Records
---
Amino acid sequence: MVKSLMKNTFNPNYERHAREVKHFEEEYGEDWDGTMIEYDSDFVDLPEYVVAAFGKGNLRAVLQWLSKGNLKEKVNAKWKDGGNAGLLFLAVMKKQLDMMSHLLLNGADVNILNVGDASVLSSSCLSKDISLKAVRLLLSWGAELFEKGEQVTNERKLLYGHKMSAKGNVEVANLVSSELGGRRCEIVSAPNTQDDLVGKTCVAEEYVEISDQYRVTMEFTNEVLLLDANRLKRRDRTPQDPGYYVECKNNRLTRCDFKSNEECRAFIASLGAGVGELSKVDPDAEAKAEQAAADLLAELGLEDLEGPSSSASKKNQPAALGKKKKRGGKKKGRK
């Protein structure tokens, strides 16, 4: 892909591409084009055209890409040229809450790390334009602050809070700095007159320091209560116990709300094998995804970049007479 861009000397990234090709050829030789390279990676590479589609708000193209192949691997795909940022991080930054939920419901790691070993919460909450709703959603799914691959200490968490406050994100700072702020919780004990609340779930909206209590919103009823911290325990959302659901039909996302956790779990159980997979996908999704990719690359002036259809079209073309095929003929190293 990079070598094909070498033909366009007017490309604004030409010099960077030239350096990359030179470095690559020093390691693998000048005849590397067509050589299979094994990459020692646990993650699917997030294609540039999918990132571009996300940036332009073309979620249907993103969902079409997700619909092909192993969904659980794809929801954790990383954008190599973007610091190993993943789809979840992109969804947070674009304030796409339903897409965030859809990814998490299908197995996205809420604490996936980027190239700097920082989690989604760590790398996004210091952004000046961070969405409070996006942070709340991450926290309700169990997001944590990670630095250099390690969960931050309470002291570092307070420092994060100060940094966020300095950027004007006071509400986000208060959430992240408290123990249960933004978390989905289960009520383990209740005031004498409200024993029926035990076992019910809520979201801790705000820590009230003066009374050492949390203002919580009950799930399904939206009732607002003030509860002591010792009456609550975390019950992070999971794909099996999310409290709500986001369906994908014909590459469109629709949120489903329920009257209780039991009803939600029954709905998910009824999906059977469909859980963790995009259900009821348009049968023409693959062709549409390829066309969307081609159109997007053309619009961005990157026709030479290989979209998902290019390899397929090459595969269907007869080999030139007298030309020796190199692909698959040798393997050089692991990277």
Note: Residues 1-8, 32-40, 273-283, 309-335 have pLDDT under 50 and may be disordered.
---
Amino acid sequence: MSQNLTQLVMRPGPGKAGKPVRVRSNFFEVTSLPSQNVQHLNVQIMPDGAPPAVLRKVWQCFEDSPNGQSFLNGTKAIFDGRANIFSPKPLKCGDDNGGISFEVDLQEGKRSGGIFKLNIKPVGAVNMAELQLFLDGKSSITNNCLTAIMVLDVLIRHVPSMQYSTVGRSFFTPQDKRPLPNGAEVWQGFYQSARPTQGKL
């Protein structure tokens, strides 16, 4: 791999100084990457200022609604909890594909959590094949590559973030929680992300 083609720093070779130690890590190799383009859409959820946890509930409510099912048309889109949607198939955003709006009545139990408006418009296509070229050292890193990595980041965090409490990019589960003084609790947290390495993720 040539440094002229990529910004990854070449490793000079295995180290010889010091004492070998065994390191336990929880890295998992991504064995295959999608080759088809992924559609990137922007969603603005009004009113502004709602935290990501509420925005995820709004998106889930939209997915389950008749309007959402009609818009998604069976496509499993993913939402980053803020303003980005990624879909493996093109989604039609209005007659001219310039944007489309929906209203969602957020239901929390038997009461309404308020009316939210979703404004969805296409941003562009993410070329996932270009990411593999970058990993193989055949292309320099581009904004498209960075967006492709973000797609994978959102993908591996999507389901946990919809099911568990999230803080930033970490999610927390009450399983095996421990009590603390004054009514506080310790919850176990997890962090997942996709990181590029030479030839693979």
Note: Residues 74 and 161 are 21 Å apart (CA to CA).
---
Amino acid sequence: MEAFKKFLAAIFALLFIITAIAALILFNFDRKAFTAETYQKAFANANFYDQLPAIMAETMVTTTTNNDQLPIVMRGLNAEVWDAFFRSLLPQDVLKSMGDEALNSIFAYWNMETNSAELSLIPIKTGMVSDAGVQAVFTLLETQPDCTLRQLGQMTVDLLSNGSLLFCNPPADVTPLLTPVIQGQMQMTALAIPDQFTLISAPPENDPRERLQTVRTLMRLSPILPLGFLLLMTLFAVNSLKSWLNWWGLPFIITGILAGLMGLSGAPVIGVIFQRILVTRMPAFLPTILLDYAGNLASAMVQTLLNPVLFQGLILALIGSAMVAGAYFIKVNK
């Protein structure tokens, strides 16, 4: 009977090790993987912030289908021109601030704090009505070929007839004449642009975030399972202080070493599998403009949970070693 109890205790010890490692991963994943701070560094390395002008350019092209909504200096612009304009208008620190705000909005949406994720366009509107907005237009014009006499004549006609402004680089003596026109038109442009752009919004039915919240709840509860196996192991095997130290210490050491190795090595195989799962599942939760960054998000998720798993594994191994040493010390004293 005693041997059978020890056999069951060994089974529960093995189950504890397996489930404890899984719980470390899942619990830390829930804590770390759903905050914007986790991804800001990863996105900076992936040049996400540098791509914001292109994202906003596509937004302007797709949301302003009626050119009459825009002033003449901005009518008929394609995505490449809008991209160049935004890069001239917005410095890198503003782009990063906008990107961070967008990420915060996305994760607020993920966490069901809001029903939509928004990208604020207010920094763009503010820049447009400032001197920087006018300078951005001239910077944009400077990238174009020099205006010919025919183009200058056409530009004059366009200004008088409220037509689409021909883009070319005007001579310096024409700049003072264009400045007040551009200033007025930029103010009109700022009024035509919405304050924010909706990146993603919750569907009226079958919201995928509800399933995500259920999964996250299970992640938070995951430590209960190894604790249950630990309790069962204790009931079947522990009958003294020495046996308690040994039966708890050895599983702690093994769990800690395996978790530490996983965190230290980056668990390449597990990481690749995990990333593939995330990339296939993420499109239901990501804005369309971020689908190209699903791989970066998944990579950041894997990396951010490995660091705490490493340290927690080391702590478990140290605790287990201390318990085994304590059991040995008791034996020596006896």
Note: The chain has a mean pLDDT of 79.
---
Amino acid sequence: MSSLIFLSILVFAVPLIQHVTCDPVKDYLLPIAERLRKMGEKAYKEEERQRTHPDDADEGTVAEDNARLVRDVYAFFPILMKYTDLHRAKWLKTPTWESDGVYENVAVIFKIWSLSQHFKREELNYQAQFEEDLAMVGGGEMKTGKAAIAERKKKRREGQAKKDKHANSIVIACLKRLLPVGLNVFGGRELDIVQQCKEKFLARENEEKIREFIRELLEIPVQVCF
């Protein structure tokens, strides 16, 4: 049922965003982003407590908190992504603390998602349910039978199944939309550091070495020429 709500948002709510004449960032988008961030922080805190103190934590509560978080993320992020596409140029030209705040909250949600096994698992479950509901209402086709099984086995042999399973995350997609807004606060030196780090991550260098690389660069004083 929740994935059908997501489908309704995609079909009916998202197209209406282009007709919004007021600026809803301060009164609506930012408060919702903050609420989702707090939900994510609470869910991850409980997940960590379950990991470190399994006897004191309720696994059902952890799963329920993350399932609710995923539902709310999938209700809000499509609208936020559409609004960002329409107004990103304006935000880049005239930055505001509200638009920066939206980015910061989404970035925190992404960080939680990247660390949380439950968050990612519940999102995969949600995506699977959405595909089933989409097929049920005639919006797509479910691959079943021997052909689908053979295809999954082939992907598994090629090592693609694990690699691609989170590629369609809406958390990643939303952060990508907002990333220019977040990078807009950086100067030339910071952007150069970001680019160098990006290249190191793409080269799959050790993350701790990259962190040390960043610390060393940030400790170098900026030379001012007179």
Note: The chain has two domains: 2-185, 187-226.
